[in-house]
Write a structure and sequence with these properties.
This protein is an alpha+beta fold. It is about 30% helix and about 20% strand. It contains twelve helices and 13 strands. Helix 4 crosses helix 9.
């Protein structure tokens, strides 16, 4: 049985840790208290004497190959980038949601819709706590959900504390307040690594993952460390000042919208200097294990590309049309959706190719994740 000591050697030491926080969240939810997060969002021992060495923290890590086939089977994953039940280009019907949204506000609109219909009693999201910072947040009301809308540049979506270190950890860390409030029908919004960790927990039927009823996954080109030095360099590359920025968006490139109305485009390839090391080894761009995946790629400004993956996700989209969402309806909507899907697949392939190459350089032997039923 492998334990957290093995995670240290196999994941933390080689730089594969996504800082999703699943290992710490599980350990804390079960009240073992053996693990904690350091100031940079990496897991570590808080009290090794409390570790029961059960090995579950190891098995649910998204960087570990254990449970790969079982988890794929559990979500009915299909090659080459997960199940695709349908795809639309949409935006929130509510203008107030659109005004605070990154793209089309679809995630917020769907969460509000599900809450109003009584289908969820909470949502694990993040909310802004500063001009470029977000923190993990358990939304237990419609107002909570609306207050968490919007985009800030730390695309990691999940700091435990406010600092220059942006970790993807903290969304899963909302397990404890979720339990204390007695919430049993929760929507979980996260990056691909977070969604995969959640699915591995559900595959093992680990408490309290059974309370998560729907998983919304976000397209992810990578997560970034975004401290003062990094912000200064980005401003230098784009030749702008942060005080003049209205909002920031990521599609094929980073788009900086200024108060003047001007939009500055910065290539994502120019931002490699702030991308986390672990992102180089990640295969998943489009949140392949989610019920619904979302992102700006393939959609016009102000709209969102939305991929239904599971029957539950497809039903949510079908029920919410004309109620919570507006869908682009050109003369040939299927062609528009197909174009978006091709673009998502292209970016998915690029991320998988890059991850395979990076793993090879690190000496990690990995099978091509686009193959059916092929464990990594």
């Amino acid at each position: 049985m492998k334990t957290f000591d093995n995670l240290i050697q196999e994941v933390l030491v080689p730089g594969l840790c996504h800082r999703c926080g699943a290992c710490v969240a599980f350990c804390s939810a079960i009240n073992y208290g053996a693990l904690e997060l350091d100031s940079e969002g990496h897991p570590r021992y808080a009290d090794k004497n409390k570790c029961v060495a059960g090995g579950l923290c190891y098995e649910i890590c998204p960087a570990i190959d254990k449970l790969e086939a079982e988890t794929k089977s559990n979500v009915a994953w299909t090659a080459p980038m997960g199940r695709v039940s349908g795809i639309i280009i949409a935006r929130a019907k509510d203008p107030a949601i659109r005004r605070s949204a990154t793209d089309g506000g679809v995630v917020t609109a769907l969460l509000v819709y599900l809450f109003q219909k009584g289908q969820i009693d909470g949502a694990v999201v993040t909310k802004p706590v500063g001009p470029f910072q977000r923190k993990s947040f358990l939304a237990a009301s419609e107002d909570d959900i609306r207050s968490a809308a919007g985009f800030f540049f730390d695309t990691a979506h999940g700091m435990k504390s406010v600092s220059d270190y942006y970790s993807t950890l903290s969304r899963i860390a909302e397990f404890n307040p979720m339990l204390s409030k007695g919430l049993r029908r929760v929507a979980f919004v996260g990056t691909p690594c977070q969604i995969k960790a959640m699915r591995k927990m559900q595959t093992l039927n680990i408490y309290p993952s059974d309370s998560v009823k729907i998983c919304f996954g976000l397209f992810c080109s990578g997560n970034f460390n975004f401290g003062e030095k990094e912000r200064d360099k980005i401003a230098q590359i784009g030749e702008f000042e942060w005080k003049n920025v209205k909002k920031i968006n990521i599609k094929e490139d980073l788009i900086v919208h200024l108060q003047s109305g001007e939009a500055i485009t910065i290539l994502l390839s120019d931002l490699k200097f702030i991308k986390r090391p672990a992102c180089k080894y990640c295969f998943d761009f489009s949140a392949e294990y989610a019920d619904i995946s979302f992102g700006g790629l393939g959609a016009e400004e102000g709209w969102t590309t939305v991929i239904a993956r599971s029957p539950a996700g497809a039903k949510i989209l079908q029920d919410s049309k004309f109620k919570a969402l507006e869908e682009i309806r050109p003369k040939d909507p299927s062609n528009l959706s197909n174009q978006a899907l091709k673009k998502v697949k292209l970016w998915s392939d690029k991320k998988k190719d890059a991850a395979l190459a990076s793993r090879k350089m690190l000496g990690i032997v990995s099978s091509d994740p686009r193959l059916e039923d092929c464990p990594l």
